Amino acid sequence: MFGYMGKILRINLTTGVVSKEDLDFDLAKKYIGGRGLGTKLYMDEVDPQVDPFAAENKIVFINGPLSGTATPTGGRYMVVTKSPLTGCIASSNSGGHWGAYLKYAGYDAVIVEGKASLPVYINIEDDKVEILPALDLWGKYVSETSAALREKHPESKVLTIGPAGEKLSQMGCIMNEDDRAAGRSGVGAVMGSKNLKAITVNGTKKPEIANPDGLKAVTKECRTLIKENGVTGGGLPTYGTAVLVNIINEHGVYPMNNFQSGYDPDAEAVSGETLTEKYLVKRNPCHHCPIGCGRWVKSEKHPDGIGGPEYETIWVFAGDLGIDDMDIVIDANFWCNELGLDTISAGATLAAAMELYQRGYITDELLDDDVILKFGNADSVIHWLKKMGNREGFGDLLARGSYRLADFFGVPEYSMSVKKQDLPAYDPRGIQGMGLQYATSNRGGCHVRGYLISPEILGLPEKLDRFELAGKPAWVKIFQDLTAVIDSLGLCLFTSFALGAKEYADMINETLGTEWTPEDLLLAGERIWNLEKLFNLEAGVSPEEDTLPPRFLEEEMPDGPSKGWVHKLDVLLPLYYAERGWDADGIPTEERLEALGLL
Amino acid sequence: MSINVKLFANFREGRGKVVQMDYTPGMTAQDVIDHLGITAPEIAALIVDGVDGKVDTMLTAEVKKDGYLAIFPPVAGG
Predict the structure, then answer these.
(1) A single Pfam family, by name (chain B) (predicted)?
(2) Nearest CA to A58 among A66, A47, A71, A69?
(3) Are A50 and A93 in contact (CB under 8 A)?
(4) Is A456 on the interface with B (CB under 8 A)?
(5) Interchain proximity A244–B76, CB inside 8 Å
(6) Are residues A413 and A434 both part of a single domain?
(7) Which residues of B touch A253 (CB under 8 A)?
(8) Which residues in A lie closer than 8 A to residue B18 (C-beta atoms)?
(9) H/E run at residue A80
(10) Tens digits of per-residue pLDDT, A337-348?
(11) Which residues 18-57 of B have a C-beta within 8 angstroms of A?
């Protein structure tokens, strides 16, 4: 068995039983690995109607066939479970080194089931797998937990949750190596519901490669393409993802004050250029990554340096809150990482709270005369993040995310979310394809299920008219399908700025000994997309949730270069369903499912 | 009468964040980048007075008096 390690580790926290099972190679090839195979393994074992916090729910940690190989960025892992935030399938992925180390330990996936009676962590060192007590770690911040576990297992990589996951915040994320996050959809809270604090992993094995010389040659070629590409070899390594602040803002789609407008005249203060000039210490790359977009920065409050922040984090704690202060952004990023909170959803929930305050739903009385949640109030950010992560006072309501917060006041329309997951840093009114992608994303509001920003704003691989509707459903479909492939291979999406389906097919073929064409890979991506859709339908997530907050459909953008636009979802959505071969109600047809091998 | 040219990322090296240029009737974005020593293949995104489009098309756009350009090299993220 090439590429894969051939073993799945199953750990039952209720019984304490650890078992090792053979990987079904045919199944693995059909769903590739990572997001695809993880979803298939999960769906075969768990009732989609399960309560995400029930012991009957499971959580799958899975790498891809290219994780742990020398391929560029080959080190990512995926966390698949049912999201407590959205009720949809959650597949949340992270970089760093943990995913590659899981492979070195000899496993393609870890399936955790049941619930421990007391807090535990799992230690994996090759064939040795232990469930160990973690009472002393429960309640600790991420860096404290990681440091304590590194002391016990110095060669291992540490994945952990923070207080937010322990306290079942629907925004609780999973952190690995202190500053890398499987950030979205509340996967950390599922760990918390199982009393599972952390997983440490180390190993000495390597995957067997079908054609080592061939993979070496393809890897070299791909690395050259990445190095010579203006984005992956220039913009990203030099400025990090924060370089997006200015270009998104100049197109008038940089959301301000909970998406009430789309242009920030003071965005330069939190731009990638400013981060590089005033705060950057060094790059902070993930496993085998030639791009190195990760940042290591220092600020007045963090003179020894910390990881991050990324573009989305900068936006949500700057423009979305009406505060253009990089020091606050860096500190907010630090506290989200320590608390184990998804930065996008945590910041977006503060933004929604500020709009609720602006409109009189949240009052000073309700806040018990605590710090005012008001746009532009810099003092509120860290104060309320801590209360959110620890579920203290009004922070308990904030910890549920923006949708549940706004719904509590009877006005869910002030949550800028899709399927209850907060939208990232691009206003869909000025980016019609991206808006369609948001509405149809299988895990709710998300930019990394199909990054239409590439063609609509950045001109990659070609510049599309961002207001044009014609052709956008086809672009959305192919971006979603290719993204599902990359997420399943175990690679970083950023490779797609330089590589195409052919290069991915070359890498996987040399690794597995297959003869897949780019079309085969895209078909696998479509299969994965449809599989996720089937889960959501069986979980009770109706196609009626394939929509956008009313603000984007009814309120014209008030200012900037996208002024006057609303999103035309009513036109695009039927065309998208048709493009996917689904019926007019957004349900995959039997004919399409059969063609994809899903019946 | 002048125009403002906003520069980003490595386009700022040796040029600064914003370059002010004298406006002349009929001047195009191509005239602006020629003046700045930037070539078309180096540009990934070009906005002229708030309007964006394919770079080749935008280079033929006339700049308004007291208008602005925003010029970006290849950048991305997410």
Answers:
(1) ThiS
(2) A47
(3) no
(4) no
(5) yes
(6) no
(7) none
(8) none
(9) strand A77-82
(10) 999 999 999 999
(11) 44-45, 47, 50-55
The verdict on a CB contact (< 8 Å) between A497 and B76 is: yes
- Of the candidates A421, A453, A479, which is a domain's last residue? A421
In a shared domain, residues A94 and A109 = yes
CA distance A537 to chain B (A): 28
Phi/psi class of residue B58: alpha, beta or left (left: φ > 0; alpha: ψ in -120 to 50)? alpha
Q: From the list B10, B47, B73, which residue is nearest A250 (CB)?
A: B47
Q: Which helix (H) or strand (E) holds A164?
A: helix A163-166
Tell me the torsion sign for CA atoms A424, A427, A429, A433. Answer: negative
Contacts of A471 (CB under 8 A, 6+ apart): A464
Residues ≥6 apart with Cβ < 8 Å to A303? none
Chain-chain contact of B45 with A272 (C-beta, under 8 angstroms): no
Domain tally, chain A: 3
pLDDT digits (tens, 9 = 90+) for A90-127: 999 999 999 999 999 999 999 999 999 999 999 999 99
- In this structure, are A397 and A462 located in the same domain? no
Shared-domain flag, residues A470 and A401: no
Verify that A403 and A449 share a domain, yes or no.
Answer: no
Contacts of A483 in chain B (CB under 8 A): none
H runs (alpha helix) in A322-466: 326-339, 343-358, 380-390, 395-398, 402-408, 432-440, 453
Residues A30 and A86 in one domain: yes
- A234 at interface of B, judged by CB pairs closer than 8 A: yes
Contact list in A for residue B47 (CB cut-off 8 A) is: 250-251, 561
- Burial-class residue A383 by CB neighbours within 10 Å (0-12, 13-18, 19+): middle
Mutate to test the interface with B, among A93, A226, A228, A243 (most CBs of B within 10 A): A243
Q: Would A41 be classed as within a structural domain?
A: yes
Compare CB distances from A230 to B44, B52, B70 and report the shortest one's residue.
B44
Average pLDDT estimate for B7-13: 97
In chain A, which residues have pLDDT < 50?
none
A225 lies in some domain: no
Residue with structure tokens 């270069």?
A561
Chain A residues in contact with B77 (beta carbon < 8 A): 236, 240-244, 272, 293, 310-311, 494
- For the segment B22-41, the average pLDDT, to the nearest whole number, is 97
- What pLDDT score does A369 carry? 79
Q: Which domains are assigned to chain B?
A: 2-72 (3.10.20.30)
Residue A167 covered by a domain = yes
ipTM of the complex as predicted: 0.98
- Sign of the torsion angle spanned by Cα atoms A118, A404, A425, A86: positive
Is A234 inside a domain boundary? no
CB–CB of B8 and A247 under 8 A? yes
Same domain, A400 and A466: no
What is the domain range of residue A578? 427-497+517-595
Which of A421, A453, A468 marks a domain boundary? A421
**What's residue B78's pLDDT?**
82
The confidence band for B1, taking pLDDT boundaries of 50, 70 and 90, is confident
What integer pLDDT is reported at residue A368 of this predicted model? 83
Mutate to test the interface with A, among B11, B47, B52 (most CBs of A within 10 A): B52
Q: Do A312 and B78 touch (CB under 8 A)?
A: yes
